[in-house]
Design brief:
The structure holds 2 protein chains of 2 kinds. Chain A is α+β, with helices and mostly antiparallel strands. Chain A contains 4 helices and 5 strands. Helices cover about 35% and strands about 35% of the residues of chain A. Chain A is globular, with a radius of gyration of 13 Å. Classes of the chains: A alpha+beta, B alpha/beta. Chains A and B meet through helix 3 and strand 5 of A and helix 1, helix 5 and helix 7 of B.
Chain lengths: ~100, ~230
């Protein structure tokens, strides 16, 4: 079986002060991905929230290279999580977790 | 230099929060209808510009033309909402109008003829992404369809497309890089998307800054050097 190429994306989540937990954020990105690009794309994306700091808003997510643009677009289109307005800002993309943490 | 041409600051007291957010995201300016009377204001040690924008709508050419006459001298950006074919064609052809704005609530699409007129007189098509943040499912799909069709018409006719936020809250704003991803969702090529976010809005502002200089007479005619009376 061919190995899938993965990419890591570091991001910053702007919010209005209220903390958003990792699960809520992951679900919101997943839901938007599913809504915009469909079930097959959501399944193939292998989306995984590697880390997310609820206090600072910094985080890293992992997905396949082929679905990277779609994952980023889906995350950008999240307007609110629950009742909290948010703004997703993509920062850096890398092929390794080490590279993104540099 | 990246400018968001469509920010809707609700009142002057919240302008500072919008400026802070815009700077954090990497913008060097924003255009909003709710600002002081001058076309351009500088903030943060002259590193950030707040530009005055005028939004005009109407189905009647006469009333829109009269309002353009009134606002052009005081506004850095003049935008006319895409409404009836007559008004849209007139606005696209008028050099004083900078932007033809697509409204997702109205069922008006950009026509080929309007796009060709816009391309000839450098009027750009403005797309606001804020509705996409608040809608979901079928309703969002309908707006994306409408935007993609109009963008495709504009690009094939040579009319410039720009993306602005249409933000009514600071958290509705997105970074220029994020906006490029949204452009690609709406059917633009990566290079075109970069131009639609970074360069095209700046070109419109630069053109209008020249207009507001005292040496400007009309398009293509400027005073380069004044003679001395001896």
């Amino acid at each position: 079986m061919k190995r899938t190429r993965r990419r890591y994306l570091s991001f910053y989540l702007h919010s209005d002060g209220s903390s958003i937990d990792t699960k809520q954020l992951g679900t919101a990105i997943w839901k938007n991905l599913l809504s915009i690009y469909g079930e097959v794309c959501a399944a193939d994306s292998k989306l995984y929230l590697v880390q997310y700091d609820e206090k600072t808003g910094d985080g890293i997510l992992q997905c396949t290279l082929s679905s990277l643009d779609m994952v980023i677009t889906s995350a950008i289109l999240i307007g609110s999580i629950g009742k909290n307005l948010v703004s997703f800002e993509p920062k850096r993309i890398s092929g390794t977790i080490k590279g993104i943490k540099k | 230099m990246v400018i968001d041409l469509g920010v809707y600051v609700p009142d002057s007291s919240s302008l500072e929060v919008f400026i802070e957010m815009a700077q954090e995201l990497g913008f060097t300016g924003l255009a909003t209808p709710h600002t002081e009377s001058e076309p351009e204001h500088l903030f943060a040690n002259s590193r950030f510009s707040v530009l005055k924008r005028a939004d005009l709508t109407g189905n009647n050419i006469k009333s829109v033309r009269k309002r353009v006459d009134d606002v052009r001298k005081h506004s850095m950006i003049v935008s006319v909402g895409l409404a009836s074919v007559e008004t849209a064609n007139w606005a696209a052809d008028d050099k004083r109008v900078d932007l033809l704005t697509l409204n997702h609530l109205r069922d008006y699409r950009l026509r080929d003829t309007t796009a060709r007129l816009g391309a000839a007189s450098n009027t750009a098509l403005e797309i606001k992404f804020e509705p996409l943040l608040n809608l979901a499912g079928l309703n969002r799909s309908k707006v994306i369809k409408m935007y993609r069709e109009s963008i495709s018409t504009a690009i094939s006719s040579g009319m410039q497309v720009i993306l602005s936020s249409g933000a009514k809250h600071p958290l509705h704003m997105r970074s220029p890089r994020a906006m490029q991803y949204l452009c690609e969702l709406l059917g633009m090529e990566p290079k075109y998307a970069e131009h639609a976010v970074n360069q095209a809005p700046m070109d419109i502002v630069e053109k209008n800054r020249r207009r507001f200089r005292s040496d400007y007479i009309r398009d293509g005619l400027e005073i380069i050097q004044r003679g001395t009376e001896e």
